[in-house]
Amino acid sequence: MHQFFPANVAAAAEAKLNFPVIWGMVCAVNDIITSECGISNDRKTLDACTIVIFGASGDLTARKLIPALYHLYKENQMPPAFRVVGFARREKDSALWRAELRTALDQFSRTGPVDDKVWTAFAANLFYCQGDLNDDAAYKKLEAQLTEFGSGPLRENLLFYLAISPSQFGEVVEQIRRAGLLNKEGAAWQRIVVEKPFGHDLASAQRLNRELTRYAHEQQVFRIDHYLGKETVQNILMFRFSNSIFEKLWNRNSVDHIQITVSEKIGVGERGGYYEEAGALRDMVQNHMLQVLSLIAMEPPVSLEAEAVRDEKVKLLKSIRPLTPSDVARQVVRGQYFAGIVGGAPRPGYRQETKVKTDSNVETFAAMKLFIDNWRWSDVPFYLRTGKNLPMSASEVRIQFRRTPNVLFAAKCGESLDANALTLRLQPNEGISLHFNGKVPGMSLRVRPVRMHFSYDSEFGAYTPEAYERLLLEAIAGDATLFIRRDEVETAWQIVDSIRAGWEGRPLTNREFYAAGTWGPIAADDLLAQLGHTWHEPQVIK
Ligand code: BG6
Asked: Which of 207, 255, 334, 414 is surrounded by the fewest CB atoms within 10 Å?
């Protein structure tokens, strides 16, 4: 079972709930002691193991994986004994690899300056194994390296992290199997962690899945979507299913529509080559956004076991109404940024970015209206949008409730009373806000939207583990809840493929461009206007 509570939730046990209301009054719920439940990752229960990182000289290893392992170690979350073996082509020894990683950690540590003593103790567990991914001899060397760790769990419990191109997954899995490092009998375990992209369409994802599962069982494959490692994304399920007041409203009877925004202030920068093959739809929608959507909209699982949660997510993805090319024309908007100003600084247009074709049609923005054809959500529009070079970096889900009949206040306050809304702020300034109407104090009858706000920072302190820390720990523990199952990936590709089919052969039109630093093309506003809706800009919450 997965742990859905923040690891340091103990700090909250004494905390009191405090809901500031922005129209001046403070609605404080005092003397409520939060009760705490949950299972924390207990260091003693994690098996000793070795993590083998393929792609050990790469960016992901230096920026994310090693910093994550270091922080887990620092916080006493790693198994009592562990080793990390970095496998890569470049010629170097363990001492040099450790020195390189230390330099990277100085740059990427999320907790400020690296603690020398902790680093020295941690780094003693790091070993480098030089070799070519397609060279049999290299895997013999790897096997010999593992054997040096003894004949116990450090040799047998193996987490293979494939921080390499997906085109090499098949080869590596076959090689580790041939080297006798995979599917060993007995109590030991071996797992394979893979990074996106899981293919570029349904057919390639199926191929990749076949390659991965030719020598490993599906239960051994842990597909990462780093959004699932984010504290607030995990909190969606906790919020929905541990509170009685919201779940009753979580359906077509009360919800008017839902907006999911993942906006990014950054452009594609140095990643033009990758982005030309991906675009916003493959880069963000196929994975992160559909994952968030499925957690927001899925039915309660029968338990918190990995398969139960993933069954519900797949069911939800399968209920998304298929899009024909003419639906795509009406319901999906793409955009590409041209030169503009973001945060006061000039940004080049997408077509001027390095490694981008000067007549590229790749979308850096996508917005869509999806419907979920099930009992709970029938006819409720789900609006999704994501883009690069937008005015701010923020990920937010807004549940917009239905309006009241407004027979009482229309005469005095006008027609436009705001509808209630609940906003789940996924990042930054993680928190949850409830929007409702309140009377402005004074003699006249004036109504104004106000907000009750819960902030992670003020409630639980600033501790937010990095997504990779959580995900690595879960993979070591063998809990697949936060990883994507084969059928999830494939169902998500079906949705994305149908959108791509609608765009096929249609160059971008003028209405599909937007200036860097704006909220996307005008067509994205028109998409919501069809049903009288408007996008809500993510709030800047302090
Ligand atoms: C990655 C995408 O998966 O997610 C990037 O490839 C994107 O293009 C990133 O910038 C966003 O992640 P986060 O955690 O910064 O929201």
From this structure: 414
Low-confidence ranges of the chain (pLDDT < 70): 1-44, 184-185, 414-415, 462-463, 540-542
Residues 301 and 361 in one domain: yes
> Whose CA is closest to atom 6 on ligand 1?
283
Q: Token pair of 43, please?
A: 């260091």
CA-to-CA distance for 98 and 104, rounded, in angstroms? Answer: 10
Which amino acid makes up residue 334?
R
**pTM as predicted:** 0.90
Q: What is the DSSP letter of 269?
A: G
Are 296 and 179 part of one and the same domain?
A: no
Domain of residue 402, CATH code: 3.30.360.10
Catalytically annotated residue among 200, 288, 435, 453 = 288
How many structural domains are present in the chain?
Answer: 2
- 396 touches ligand 1 (CB under 6 Å): no
Atom of ligand 1 nearest to the CA of 264: 10
Q: Which amino acid is at 485?
A: R
DSSP code of 201?
A: S
**How many whole angstroms from 372 Cα to the centroid of ligand 1?**
26
Q: Is residue 37 part of a domain?
A: no
Is 441 a domain residue? Answer: yes
Check if 283 has its Cβ closer than 6 Å to any atom of ligand 1. yes
Its domain, for residue 80, covers 49-195
Average pLDDT, the chain: 89
Is 217 tagged catalytic? no
Residue 26 lies in a domain: no
**Cβ-contact 286, 320 below 8 angstroms:** no
| 523 and 397 fall within a common domain | yes
Helix, strand, coil shares, percent, the chain, to 5:
40, 20, 40
pLDDT tens column, 24-42: 223 333 333 445 655 444 4
**pLDDT single digits (tens) 484-524:** 999 999 999 999 999 999 999 999 999 999 999 999 999 99
